[in-house]
Amino acid sequence: MDDSENWWRDAVVYEVYPRSFADANGDGTGDLAGLRARLGHLADLGVDAVWTTPWYRSPMVDGGYDIEDHRAVDPLFGTDADALELIAEVHRAGLRLLIDVVPNHTSDRHRWFRAALAAGPGSPERARYHFRPGRGDGGERPPTDWRSVFGGPAWQRVPDGEWYLHLFAPEQPDLNWDHPDVRAEFEDLLRFWFSRGVDGVRIDVAHGLVKDSAFPDLGADHEDLMRPPDRGRHPHWDVEGVHDIYRAWRKVASEFGPDRVFVGEAWVAKPDRLACYVRPDELHTVFNFDFLRCSWDAGALRSVIDCTVHALHAVGAPATWVLSNHDVVRHVTRFGRANTRVEDHPCPPGPADLALGRRRARAALLLMLALPGGAYLYQGEELGLDEVEDLPEDVLTDPTWKRSGHTQRGRDGCRVPLPWSGTAPPFGFTDDGGPTWLPQPSRWRELTAQAQRDDPQSMLCLYRTALAARREHPALGDGTMTWLPAPEGVLSFAREPGFECVVNLSAEPVELPDGARVLLASVPPEGGRVPVDAAAWLVRR
After folding, report:
1. 504 and 413, same structural domain?
2. H/E element holding 262?
3. Is there a catalytic annotation at residue 255?
4. Is residue 170 part of a domain?
5. Would you say residue 444 lies in a domain?
6. Which of 169, 174, 199, 510 lies at a 20 to 30 A Cα distance from 237?
7. Which residues contact 514 (CB under 8 A, 6 or more apart)?
8. Could you tell me the pLDDT band of residue 270, with boundaries at 50, 70 and 90?
9. Whether 310 and 192 share a structural domain
10. Measured in Å, how far apart are the chain's first and last C-alpha atoms?
11. What is the CA radius of gyration of the chain?
């Protein structure tokens, strides 16, 4: 483990969705004991830290992001003792652990919300949430025209006639961050987990906590978490008051040492807005969703990289690059659909070319790991897993499926349990060989960790090799970069001392620069040239 207080500036963090990582008790659902048993895979991969999505007590309406008790482990994942043992074992493996905190909303089973429903209109209990009278003579219409990210109105009426706000599912009522109880509760929650040894916190919907107190209409009929707000003043995304919250949180983290960190999930319109979240007295890092959303196009990627680096370096923060996560279509599938952007899903034209997608994913990995700053990997991308787009309708659990009127399949396709070994499902995911909570495709037999472990041409071997080289080369990690002249459709940049990266997104092979030795390539160079949809790391002789 890197003991530096600035370890986070260039860390590579591996995201674990525990429900789909590894199952130790044979019920077909991943758990904390399963994660502990597979920590060796992560240590061998060469990452610096692990981020786990929520393991807390939850009705699981939204995959664990509807939290009933932030301080208790849900029995689906194990016990409170399992969480403490996981923290200890992560540290023994030489890694750090980040956990998820969900401050925008609670479950409707949370003690606060149950008290609010029981107390009635105008009560102090309801003030912790956003309850409002409806519009119309009988209050039969929602207070505003705001829309849920999962589809439908963002307001739910209760039997006494009032409405409460839920920007996500109705079972996820939004908290009122103007209430002192809410602020005090989450600061205490941070202390609870920091005192138990976690190294950092990923903040869910970090841009959504504060709402415009006037509750103005949006004037639009659709909201989408994956589309940053396109207006200068949005009533519930990226409202200025969120920054006071994170200044207070930064002080809490500092109580436990300079190496405790935050990473924010903030979907915002422009890089300069993103930079506001990582000013020196606020969060440490934020996810770079512009990079994740970008099409496979050299000009678009260069623009995103330039804007990101410029905006974040202006406030002294490093960039954090990411290609996939538990909320978006896996990038092998995205890259297999020509230049499709994230928001073009879920109804892109035609099937994905997965061979093309994996070829581009290999090149994208080398691009991402060569850029200055840190990176986040999503479980299974090191195996080259694709989106499972043909899950049976009767197994879909994402709330988007129901609330969209069965027109959008949601995020289950990127959350299918991992294949570890063997030639047929459940591919070593569960000890008793029974079915997994979401079915795995049989085509993954060639993508198991066991099948790839000793294959030097595999995706897994590329990830291990690239992460090891990144750790060893003094030019990589935090720092600066310089663009080099390159043909149209090619990205080429240098990092000192003595490192170059070339990514060929053009239609023709491109010549390797003179006087350079290939350190690593996504596919072997051909006749001194980088093939199409390939990347190479070079060192000067």
Report:
1. no
2. strand 261-264
3. yes
4. no
5. yes
6. 199
7. none
8. confident
9. yes
10. 32
11. 23
Instruction: At 520, list the tokens.
Output: 């690593």
For the segment 274-324, what is each residue's pLDDT rounded down to a tens digit?
999 999 999 999 999 999 999 999 999 999 999 999 999 999 999 999 999
pLDDT (mean) for 380-388: 98
What are 198-248's pLDDT values in tens digits?
999 999 999 999 999 999 998 876 666 555 555 568 899 999 999 999 999
Total domain count, the chain: 3
Do you find a cis peptide bond into 346, omega within 30 degrees of 0?
Answer: yes
Two tokens, residue 272? 């300069």
Is 204 among the residues known to form the active site? yes
- SS3 for 132? strand
Which one of the listed residues 15, 23, 74, 204 is annotated catalytic? 204
Cα distances from 301 to residues 296, 297, 536, in angstroms, run: 7, 6, 17
Which residues face 264 on adjacent strands? 203, 286
Which ranges in 7-131 belong to alpha helices (H)? Answer: 32-37, 39-45, 80-92, 111-119
Q: Hey, what are 186's tokens?
A: 């989450």
Bridge partner list, 375: 12, 321
| 103 upstream amide cis, omega within 30 of 0 | no
* CA neighbor of 105 nearest in space, from 164, 184, 18, 41: 164
Closest CA to 503 of 487, 527, 515, 479: 487
Domain hosting 307: range is 12-104+180-453
CATH of the domain at 498: 2.60.40.1180
Domain assignment present for residue 420? The answer is: yes
d(CA 441, CA 418): 10
Domain of 250, CATH number, reads 3.20.20.80
Helix (H, G, I), strand (E, B) or coil at 85: helix
Q: Is residue 458 part of a domain?
A: no
What tokens were used for 84?
A: 């403490």
Active-site position among 255, 343, 446, 496: 255
Strand 374-378 with 499-504, pairing: unpaired
Nearest to 436 by CA among 423, 424, 445: 424
pTM, two decimals, is 0.95
